[in-house]
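Morning - coenzyme A inputs below, output right after.
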Amino acid sequence: MHFILLRWVIVLKVGELIRNFKARDSKDVLLRSPLWSDIDDFLHFINSLVDEGADILANTKRTREEEVDFVSRLITNIERNRMISVVAEVEGHLIGHVEVTKKVGYASHVGLLGISVLKDYRDIGIGQELMKEAETQAKNLGVEII
Ligand SMILES: CC(C)(COP(=O)(O)OP(=O)(O)OC[C@H]1O[C@@H](n2cnc3c(N)ncnc32)[C@H](O)[C@@H]1OP(=O)(O)O)[C@@H](O)C(=O)NCCC(=O)NCCS
């Protein structure tokens, strides 16, 4: 007799809404997966972090062309279940982002995480909500260790 094990995986697709919450200062925050139309917000986001000298991997500003490549890779990797990505939006603008990239082969149960929130929106609980969501989404992708 053969047994077939089916593992139901709920993976978020591009642009999918996740949930709303109120930040500690009462701002309404929306969590969702990213969209093509986030390119200009992503560009402003990354360049603000670089300007600030934030503790992220990038230290040079990006051009719009480079950002198009970044968003293109991001969306491709989400579609192929290689990573999860969640953006935080306030008043229609992207102000926070978390991503977990799944390693491959024997290490495919391990995910690498990157997180940032724009300076003016820190210390009101948005990073913590992004972390919680990253954990949930990454688990759905089969990641056991972040
Ligand atoms: C780290 C970051 C995303 C936190 O976002 P946030 O919205 O301010 O987070 P919250 O308001 O939910 O929580 C703030 C808490 O995170 C802590 N914190 C801030 N940076 C941290 C870090 N790098 N590691 C661990 N904890 C950190 C704060 O001390 C604070 O702790 P407290 O609640 O006990 O006082 C934000 O500070 C940021 O974008 N920093 C610049 C980029 C960066 O350092 N990214 C992480 C490395 S990839």
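Note: The mean pLDDT is 92.

O.
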